[in-house]
Write a structure and sequence with these properties.
Two copies of one chain form a homodimer. By secondary structure, the first copy, chain A, is mainly α. Chain A has a domain of 141 residues: Tetracycline Repressor, domain 2, CATH 1.10.357.10. Helix content of chain A is 73%, strand content 0%. Chain A has ten helices and no strands. Chains A and B meet through helix 4, helix 7, helix 8 and helix 9 of A and helix 6, helix 7, helix 8 and helix 9 of B.
């Protein structure tokens, strides 16, 4: 889709919106393709064709495939993070459950973006992509840390929270692949997993014990 | 290095050993570099220089950087898997602890290989690399499944075991990054995490309850 020559007085606001929307359409098409095929087997032509656009337009907006790939993942990452900001002020365990529900809203509504973002699994990945994925993971960690009012986690608590985040990521991918567990059931499982993992950590770490207490109201043991 | 014309009676065994050793040296040097820098910032010259070899020799053995990268990760993956094959026939919980100890032996002794394997490389080469990483993960899953005598895991048990494997991977990376938890302590934590996660799964899944019972000797609840 090439730009038509503008013959009327330009209307910047609407025009801007249209540019953004077109860019977004390309990103959506790219995410869909990248999540189903290896990036090396997705061409600019594939993306252009899936979005009903011209090859030239894709180059115009993104410069090349690597830039498009990075832009697509960044867009998925931003959307996911915007979903995870705390919304309410309920009891900590309810807040955690609500956060997981919003996470799975994203997984369900943006399956392509989620799979493209996390297909590499819980492992760190190198380069710009690795930075995006680790960025999401790191900010997710900070969100949980802040929501649970942990100033500086002890090593055991840090390892436990990171492990739990990896569990949630993996559960999201498993659910997309298999869809044989009710979403609500899987969400409850993950809340209970957090409590159980904190319980293990609490046996050897005072900070984890305090966090478990704050989360469940149980007395630290 | 091109093959020299054979003028004497060839001695295949010794010659073969020497070729294998040289190839292994190149792979070791490559893993070391790939685990510290993005693959895109490691050149064939870097690998050759780190291994005290010529650029031509690297090309001779591997054809190019992508092939070298894949060979290096495959080598790390094979080594990790060979470590994880069940060795003894102790009680299930002891077997699990021994398996985790062998896993961390690999993490400690082959830190470069482990980090390179799980860092997975830039996503635009995700195809072959992704297959190696997912292959390790899948065979690790089968190993645990077989060792615990689970024929066909229920959805809840499958999600739980996959989550736990992701926890172990993450704990391994966390330990390499921070080294502020005793290895033995982290290993115990991961065994207890498995029991705790199975406990959560067992509340809603009979198969998980049976597995928990087999692992700990507790009565299924």
């Amino acid at each position: 889709m090439t730009e038509l020559p503008v013959t009327e007085t330009p209307r910047p606001a609407r025009r801007r919106l249209s540019v953004d929307r077109r860019r977004e359409e390309l990103i959506t098409a790219a995410l869909e393709l990248f999540s189903r095929r290896d990036a090396e087997h997705v061409s600019i032509d594939d993306v252009a064709s899936a979005a009903g656009a011209s090859r030239a337009l894709v180059y115009h907006y993104f410069g090349g495939k690597q830039e498009l790939y990075v832009a697509a993942l960044r867009s998925a990452a931003e959307l996911l993070e915007s979903r995870l900001r705390p919304q309410g002020s309920g009891r900590p365990l309810e807040e955690l459950a609500a956060g997981i529900a919003r996470y799975f809203d994203f997984v369900e509504q943006h399956a392509a973006g989620y799979a493209a973002l996390l297909r590499g699994g819980p492992a760190n990945r190198a380069g710009e992509i690795g930075e995006i994925v680790d960025g999401v993971r790191g900010r997710l960690f900070l969100l949980i840390q802040r929501q649970m009012r942990v100033a500086e986690p002890s090593p055991v608590l840090r390892a436990t929270l990171r492990s739990w985040i990896a569990s949630v990521e993996t559960a999201g991918l498993d659910w997309l692949e298999n869809r044989d567990i009710e979403r609500a059931e899987l969400e409850r499982l993950l809340v209970e997993d957090m409590v159980a993992l904190l319980g293990v950590a609490a046996r050897r770490d005072g900070e984890a014990a305090r966090l478990l207490h704050a989360l469940t109201g149980d007395q630290p043991g």
